[in-house]
Structures are given as structure tokens and as C-alpha cells.
Amino acid sequence: MRSKLLIILFLGMILILYTFDSVHNSSTRFTSSEDKTAAKNVVNHTDQDQGLVRPIVLGFSQLGSESAWRNANTISIREAAEEAGIELHFEDADQSQSKQFEAIRSFIKQKVDVIAIAPVIESGWEPILKEIKQAGIPLIILDRLVNVSDSSLYVTYIGSDFYEEGRKAGKYVIDKLSSKKEIVGIVELGGTEGSTPSIARGKGFRDVIKEHENLKILKSQAADFTFAQGKQVMKSFLNKMGNEINVLYSHNDDMALGAIEAIEEFGLRPGKDIIIVSVDGTNKAFEKMAEGKINSVVECNPLLGPNLMQAVNELMQGRSLPKRIVTPESVFTETMALEEVGKRKY
Ligand code: GYE
């Protein structure tokens, strides 16, 4: 009887100890389906105070949620972080640089392992980048670039070749219209003023069309990459010079979609009376291209999450990264639109 009681007591104690251990370590464990990837990413990453293995913490300052491209970019980053077992601290800055500064300072306070930024504009970053460096936190620049004199302030820049995108848009206009004898009037909807894609897409486009005297940019205005501003600015272009406009070059799809509404309300046919070339390659733009309302879309890939997580992991494993990681992209025209529409991930 007594020995039975002792065995029960002994088993009870083992159970209590085991439960305590599970609870104590729960923050460092992963559920079965995530076990492999998550465990892979925390190898060699131990908490020095407690000797425990814990996930890498990434602070990411997203610039906003102004477009379909941006939303796809955010989803890609969230999903890739989860898949990689990386703990993501995410802040949306609503297209405000000062809100990005606030987010970064809070990441420094939280002592995250790595910081990544998608910077809204290029200028004004040097002081805060120095704060990050002083805190000893490695920095990855994503999507858009920062204009700093000391490039050692960040580890790597992952993003598209926006200059090439602008050139591709220009080449489409040349192929389609440069043989015309008369002047071809072009209007341009720029993205956010001072942002890398807006600067480089504008320059690439100009650099290729400048050889052709009949291709003339009548007017260019920033419309912040949004549908609403795209529509409003296009409306003002049409009111000022409606009949002279032959081509619209839009720095992103959302502004082009807004402009299509303005063109139709003005009584012209988008894609026919006004040729439209846009950048991004979202599903909505493909739908409009299949309807013949957009003529060409230059692709810009927003699915940067896996690239970012890979860079974070490599960094934490002490590997060195290339200073520039570029994502490959294509150009689509009306004839390809029907095949492609509905297949896009964004
Ligand atoms: O083209 C636009 C977005 O920075 C590449 O930002 C990105 C651009 C993208 O708002 O749709």
C-alpha cells in the first residue's frame, strides 16, 4: 500500500516538473508544422542572458498603404516572416517620413536584432541611420533607396531597377508611336515627389524618348502613387489640354486606374484616344489591359518578403551580403493581358 502511494507521488512530481518546464520554455518553442523552418532560423541565435534559443526579431518600417503594390508587398513580408519563424515588428508610416523615424526609434528601444526600412523619400535619412548604427543594429533598405553619403550605414538594398522600368515604358511608346509624323503629346503622372521610383522612372523614360523629336512631354505632375490623386491630376491635365494628349505615362497602376476614370468622364476612350503605359502589373491593371483600356504595363515585383527574410537570416548567421539585390521583371502588352489576367498574385 505504502509503496503504491510512493510510486503515485513520484509520478505526480515528474508530471508537475514536466508541465513547469513546458510553460517556462513556451516562448522559445514552435508548433509542430512550423518546427523545421522555425528551428532552422533560430540555430546559433541564443539569448545571452538566459542561454535560451529564441526567434530573430525584425523591426520593419513600411512607408504606407497607398497602393495595391504596397499592400501586396506588406502581405509578402508578413507571410515570409511567419514562414521563416522570424518575429516581425511591423509599423505602417502612412507615407510620412517623421512617422518612419518614430517607428525606427521604437525599434532601437526594443533592441530588435535587425531593422528594415522601405523609405518614403530618398533625402533626410543620414542622422537616423547614424542612430541605428550607434545602437549596433544592422539595417536593410527595402524597395526604395536612401540618399546618404556614407553607404556603410546600411548593409544591403533590396529592390527593383526603377531606371530600367522607366526605359522599358519609354521604349514601348517609341515602338508604338515614334514613326508618326505629327507631334505626340505625352502627360506624366509621377509618384511621390523625391521617392526613388518616381525619380528613376521619370529619368529612364526621358533618357530613351529624347532621341525622338516628335515625342513631347507636355506636362508632368506628382500624384503620390494613389488612385484619388491620379484621377484628380489627370482631370486637370484634360481640362487644360485635353485634345493635345496622345499618351499617358503613369508611374504606377493605381494612378493609371484613377486617370482612366477621369478620361472616360471627359468623354475620351482610354487605350484608344489616349495610349496608356503604366508600371507595377497588378491584377486590376491587367483587367483594364484585357479590356483595351491600358496598352502596356511594365512589371515591378512587390513580393520582396522571401528575399528580405533570407537576407535577415544570412546576416544573423554572420554572412556578408551583396550591397545591391535586384529583382527580375518583365513588360506586358495588350496581347498578353488575357493570358495573364487572374494569374497574378497581386
Ligand atoms: O510602384 C507603387 C508604390 O516603391 C516600387 O510604390 C514602389 C512603388 C510602386 O506605391 O505602386
TrEMBL record:
Subcellular location: Cell envelope
UniProtKB keywords: Signal
Top-level lineage group: Bacteria
Cellular component aspect of the GO annotation: cell envelope
Gene3D superfamilies per record: 3.40.50.2300
Domain Periplasmic binding protein: 63-319
Pfam families cross-referenced by the UniProt entry: Peripla_BP_4
InterPro entries in alphabetical order: Peripla_BP_I, SBP_2_dom
MF GO annotations: carbohydrate binding
SUPFAM superfamilies membership: Periplasmic binding protein-like I
Protein family membership: Belongs to the bacterial solute-binding protein 2 family.
Protein name: Substrate-binding domain-containing protein
Annotated source species: Paenibacillus silvestris
